[in-house]
Amino acid sequence: MTVPETGGPRVRAALRARTPVVAAVALGGGAGAVARYAASLWWPAPAHGFPWTILWVNVAGCAVIGVFMVITTEVRTAHPLVRPFFGTGVLGGFTTFSTYAVDVRNLLDGGEAATGLGYLAATPLAALAAVWAAAAATRRVLTGRRP
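Request: output the structure for the sequence above.
Response:
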């Protein structure tokens, strides 16, 4: 029985081609995660209280995603590494589903069912509204087009 070659020239070429994208996402993700962590240190959520900081981080990040995607897909052609670095990396690291999920669980486990369920519903609704509103506003401002 022969073992298939896993490091052949085609595989190595594919890995080399992806390295800049992976590096861009990693660098951007680190920067975004640090910014989110800094926000949580500057505006800590009260124990058993509504996690306003992470809600606003997610809403602000989603609004920036809406602006960014309109600019990079409809208005200007961006360098191929801009979207992986800023969109996937920085904004993906800044916004957080995992912290949101842990906050919901902690609120529910701490007997704060109403707050936890409110947060569970408010975050995705506010985040989606932020993306939509920011994208629509950006289109109106930069291109004069209606959404």
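The mean pLDDT is 90.
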